[in-house]
Amino acid sequence: MASPTTIYTAAAIHTLDPSRPDAKAVAVRDGRVLAVGSVEELQRIEGATVDGSLERFTLLPGFVEAHCHAMAGGMWLHTYCGYFDRQGPDGRVWSGCRSMDDVIERLLKADARMTSEGAGPDEPLLAWGLDPIYFPGERLVARHLDRVSTARPILVMHASLHLATVNKALMEAEGITPDTDMDGVPKDGSGWPIGELREPAAMSLAGTAFRKFWGRTKSEDSLRNFGNKARNTGITTLTDLGNRESAKESEIERFRWVVDQEGFPARVSVFHMPVPGTPEALEQAAADVVASRGASSAKLRFGHVKLVIDGSIQGWTARLRWPHYLDGGNGIWVVPPEQVTDILRPYHEAGLLIHVHCNGDEAVDVWLEAVESLLAETPRIDHRHTVQHCQLTSPDQYRRIAALGMCANLFSNHTFFWGDQHASSTVGPDRAARMNSARTALDLGVPLSMHSDAPVTPLGSLHVAWSAVNRLTATGVLLGPDERISVAEAIHAITLGAAHQLKMDDEIGSISPHKHADLAILEADPFAIDPAGLRDVPVWGTMLGGRLFPAD
């Protein structure tokens, strides 16, 4: 006897399935889509019942966020001091810090609160979201944080998560001195570190504070916050794109304990982040990632790989082709270019999907050359290796991406959050106008997705799509009008395009028979409104596997 079938009616259903792109009803059985069509057509299914609770909404495939991080749910355990207003998972709206004085004032309040709650002077003050690029002129460094405390260690992670600023007390406690010789530790004219730590190797010098910052984000509550924020923004599939411990049994169990619970409202794909090592160590690490696939479930996926090879453009640590940055400098290699192919070889040979962080176009060159070498050694069909961020990628690089069978996942939100600064400070108006060039990528046949990189920018696929469709900066400047794409193309990128890059397009990404009944439930039709209002479409909630999850 067949399981019960529920027919959900709606004001509009956009399936993204070309065989039936629009419908008025969807039939769900056993958590999957049974059929779509008119109410009359679906009522012919024996024993089906009609549920009209969604009849005033527009239904789309659940949004797929193919580049974000599980720590987005745990960052709110630290003090937020970013430039833009942000809403935490508990609904609290944190006002943006619009000046250096605002940042100092927020940190002073956090320090006072810690003291009143009994935290000793050795307990570090941890904060996040800072981006000095918004404050022209003097850069916030250690001596500014010393206004907050000369005794308590302070670590403030930048919005990009590629840099941190620390105070003198922390440097003294961790032995960061003029003798510290490391790329990523800038110094003043007298040879003293200024308190800025650039990229992981330098940031790790922050020792206890650095470990506590990331350790606090690995709680079960952090994961639950991650899922709740997804539900509130229409996302039904998330990624944890870069987890060094994803093949460890303890980390696998942490994810399984939370994500596989019936009440967790999203699917999660966890990508392993490899580290350099001997050939033998890399072979074993690849074998461990392959083995971790056995812990996957309907809601949780293990067994993919993500490597970071450069930094962030707004932090001046991404690697750019000549003429580099406007000031003539260039960024930092997180992984030396000559090591990239060797690090990734065992993962490619094991048949794993590989995504690589490449903000700058020089980094894209390194990744493309590595893929060419790996495919020459070990040919693979339908590998779907992906360039992540891909911000300054040029037409010649997009042609190579398409020819190599690769994908691109663009950080479209950058146009809004940093477009003004890129045009004036980092790369100039011409290169800023071609950043995140979705139109060029699609015209050259590149499979495309777009992302928020939460917590770097807020989790929310409609804002990601809005950024690609409108290409407006925070001050309202239209940046790169020729790179705009249509609403339909943007919605495809945040659904089927992202599902394709995760190798999940046979399960999610469209409202199609056989696929999971994962839906974004919207209070307006994004195809029927002015595209300028796309990011403001209210989200009622989601459906995951046939179960409704109203937004909080």
Mean pLDDT over the residues: 96
Q: Number of helix segments?
A: 17
Q: How many angstroms separate the termini?
A: 37 Å
Overall domain count: 3
Shape label = globular
Number of strands: 23
Approximate strand percentage? 15-25%
Secondary-structure arrangement, i.e. CATH architecture of the largest domain: Alpha-Beta Barrel
Low-confidence stretches: none
Largest sheet data: 8 strands, mixed
Question: What Rg is obtained from the alpha carbons, in whole angstroms?
Answer: 23 Å
Q: What's the CATH superfamily of the largest domain, by name?
A: Metal-dependent hydrolases
How would you describe the overall organization of this protein?
The chain has 552 residues and is an alpha/beta fold. It has three domains: 5-56, Urease, subunit C, domain 1; 75-215, Roll (Diaminopimelate Epimerase, Chain A, domain 1), CATH 3.10.310; 219-544, Alpha-Beta Barrel (TIM Barrel). Helix content is 31%, strand content 20%. The chain is built from 17 helices and 23 strands. The strands form four sheets. Strands 1, 2, 3, 4, 5, 21, 22 and 23 form an eight-stranded mixed beta sheet that branches. β17, α11 (361-377) and β18 form a beta-alpha-beta unit. α9 crosses α10, α10 (337-349) crosses α11 and α16 (461-470) crosses α17. It starts with a strand and ends with a strand. 55% of the residues are buried.
Question: What brief labels describe this structure?
Answer:
552 residues, TIM Barrel, alpha/beta, 17 helices, 23 strands
